[in-house]
Amino acid sequence: MSMATTMGYTTADREFLLAAGQTCTDCAGAIDDDNLEAWPDYFSEDCLYRVETREGRANGWQIGLMHCEGRGMLRDRVLAIRHGNVFDPHTYRHVLSMPRFAPAAPGSDGTEIASARRVLTSFNVTRVMQTGETTLFAVGTYDDVFVEAEGRLLIRSRTVVLDSRNLDTLLVIPL
Amino acid sequence: MFRWPDEGLARVPFRVYNDPQIAEAEQKLLFQGETWNLVCLDLEVAEPGQYRTNWIGETPVIVVRDPVADRIRVFVNRCVHRGSMLCLERHGKAENFTCMYHNWVYSLDGKLQSIAFKRGVRGQGGMPADFDITKHGLRELRVDTIRNLVFATFSDQLPPVAEWFGPRMVWSLERFFHKPIRLIGGYTQVLPNNWKLYAENVRDSYHASLLHTFFATFGLNRLSMDGAVEVNEAGGSHLSWSKMATDDAEGTDYASGGLRSMRDLAIEDRRLLKTWPEFPDGITHMIQTLFPNVFLQQIQNTLAVRLLVPRGLDRCDLQWWVFAYEDDTPEQLRMRLMQSNLVGPAGLVSLEDGFIGNAVQRTTRGDQGHGAIVEMGGHGVGTERQSRVSEAAVRGFWQQWRGLMGL
Question: Are B184 and B336 in contact, with CB atoms under 8 Å apart?
């Protein structure tokens, strides 16, 4: 049954967006709650996680701020945060928009993207330092492709696109 | 009145990071004075009419390729009429520069071409008859380039860039830019500290394996490896280089295990560490500074130019240009991509540099009478060929800074 809605979305579309939004929200919650060890579990085993700027994307630059391929690299990031890197203690608070379907565009593997479904979610991330200093740290879009795997809806590919080319101090906790 | 401590270069008074009068004098004596300042890479102004805006200290500038003379010119980015910024965009292409405020128009060689309502309206108003537009062009700076780097100066007397930095610095720039490059990334890191704290940090090879855990743990860079710190004659520019895999940790402080950076870390995915020998000289790490505020980096196969722009006393913007060579193979580019996780604002081996300046900045505000101890490797600024456990290049920075500042 294809039940049209006011926005032209089918019930299946709405259910998918709701599930995708839930994955995004839970994933952001894991980061904000300092449960970083759970963060890689929202991604598929063969995932791509990348942070870049809007300018970099427009220029087609290969190098962004972070580039992780596979859950192992995500776990390595968490290991580094916990044991390797030295920084001023701080936490994030994500505020996410409702997800929306990305405008149709052929990707490098266009057919796969179409079947896996590509979703955009806007985010604001506020950074709270241990001193109490609270600032707007990052604003941008998650450009996500989801996949059903391991009985759940997982992020197969996430490109965090920052609206600004400026990044304050450092980026250690993932966005 | 400010006076440098009697110990000379072995002490850096904390006041230099916090005194507004010193910051003001730096604008005049350094950035608008006798220094060559990086303004952009030549690739950003390769086409006729292509421009890039930037900052020399607090002065906004436009870098543009003049299509008539086919050369790069640098102007102060300010309309001579009422001081409005002429170009707001970071990059662009122009046929002329037109001030949005009152439509004063400049050609790309900086000459004032026309003034809106110069003759008034229906014979009424307008500029006085004796106003001579040929006498009111944009303020133009001297320009010099070396390889891909474009420099400008307010000085009429400074020798050319190559001569000013000296032959060893030129050797390294020719090494970095030995074949055509292309940009593969770029961002601006906002640092919450006085610009000189970062300028010191990059010249300080002593901290690298102590503050940055990843270096030591994975054997990427230890001070016991073969390498050197070389300081140029003026003091403010330097090279720090090393060759990976030429040592082991036996017999050093690293082996005794007392250093925090030797905690045993194992990463799951070692693709991050895959490298190839970029240069035939075997040097795997090359950090170069160019006085006052330019930094070049070869860390394994990650290549970048950085420019530090001061923004008041306790903030500075670090602009990064990440580059590769035009003839990179796809596999080389892929290794650069993986290694990009090691450097930059999110770099596993160096992200600490983003905040360590602020850790100093915070303690120095209320403490104007004390200073930092800078005696590692002695008191001189000479080249260290034996050991990179040295603050020679930091002392060299202050030597040149003090000379120009008269302090």
Answer: yes
Distance CA B349, CA B338 (A): 13
Contact B213 A168 (CB under 8 A): no
Contact of B377 with B387, CB cutoff 8 Å: yes
The phi and psi torsions of B214 (rounded to 5 degrees) equal -60, -40
Write the ipTM.
0.92
Tokens 């086919």 correspond to what residue? B70
Q: Divide the 407 residues of chain B into consecutive groups of 10 and give the mean pLDDT of each group.
A: 88 94 97 98 98 98 97 98 97 97 97 94 92 96 98 98 98 98 98 98 88 67 74 96 66 51 69 91 95 97 98 97 98 97 94 94 81 91 79 96 97
Contact check, Cβ <8 Å, A88/B271? no
Band of the pLDDT at A113, cuts 50, 70, 90? low
Chain B CB contacts of A62 under 8 Å are 184-185, 333, 336-337
Which residue reads 């004032």 in tokens?
A: B112
pLDDT at A62 over 60: yes
Question: How many residue contacts between A and B have a Cβ separation below 8 Å?
Answer: 117
User: What are the φ/ψ torsions at residue A133 (nearest 5 degrees)?
Assistant: -60, 125
H or E segment and range at residue A96: strand A90-96
pTM of whole model > 0.90?
A: yes
Instruction: Assess A87–B contact: CB distance below 8 Å, yes or no.
Output: yes
In tens, the pLDDT along A136-162 reads: 999 999 999 999 998 999 999 999 999
Q: Is B186's CB within 8 Å of A61's CB?
A: yes
Residues A160 and A52: their CA atoms lie apart, in Å, by: 6
Q: In the prediction, which pLDDT does B369 show? A: 78
Whether the CA torsion B309, B315, B230, B244 is positive or negative: it is: negative
pLDDT at residue number B295: 98
Q: Does A89 touch chain B (CB under 8 A)?
A: no
Chain A: residue whose CA lies nearest to B321: A63
Q: State the first-to-last Cα distance of chain B, in angstroms, to the nearest integer.
A: 11
Alpha carbon of A101: minimum distance to chain B alpha carbons (Å): 28
How many angstroms separate the CA atoms of B63 and B49, rounded? 10
Is residue B66 within 8 Å of B73, Cβ to Cβ? yes
Cβ-defined contact of B345 to A170 (cutoff 8 Å): yes
Which residue has tokens 């026309």?
Answer: B114
